[in-house]
Amino acid sequence: MKKTYKIDVDCANCADKMEVAASKTPGVKECTVNFMALKMKVEFDEGADVDAVMKAVRENCKKVESDCEVFI
Questions:
Q1: pLDDT at 31 over 90
Q2: pLDDT attached to residue 6
Q3: Is there a contact between 42 and 31 (Cβ–Cβ < 8 Å)?
Q4: Phi and psi of 47, rounded to 5°?
Q5: How much is the CA Rg of the chain, to the nearest whole Å?
Q6: CA–CA separation, 26 vs 14, rounded Å?
Q7: Is residue 25 classed exposed, middle or buried when 0-12, 13-18 and 19+ CB atoms within 10 A define those classes?
Q8: For position 22, what pLDDT does the model report?
Q9: Residue 29 and residue 37: Cα distance in Å, rounded?
């Protein structure tokens, strides 16, 4: 399953950090962050609990860039 989320981030470097952090989250098969569009596209592993995975993605993104936001 693939979903797109709105994000709030200040710079392209921060967006890259968010992409790396989200990609390393268990349950995420692939993640792409588009800084210009302020969007995060996430493909989930089969059978993953999307809500739980996205909460973990948000936490992991906050660890690398504290002033970013992922709107779930």
A1: yes
A2: 97
A3: yes
A4: 80, 5
A5: 11
A6: 21
A7: buried
A8: 97
A9: 21
pTM over 0.70: yes
Place of tokens 């302020």: 38
3 vs 54: CA distance, rounded Å: 10
d(CA 56, CA 72) in angstroms, rounded, equals 11
CB 70 within 8 A of CB 40: yes
Distance CA 38, CA 5 (A): 9
| Look-up of token digits 């693939």 | 2
Long-range CB pairs of 29-32 (<8 Å, 24+ gap) are 31/57
- Residue 13 tokens read as 């470097």
Cα Dmax for the chain: 33
Say how far apart CA 28 and CA 61 lie, in whole Å.
13
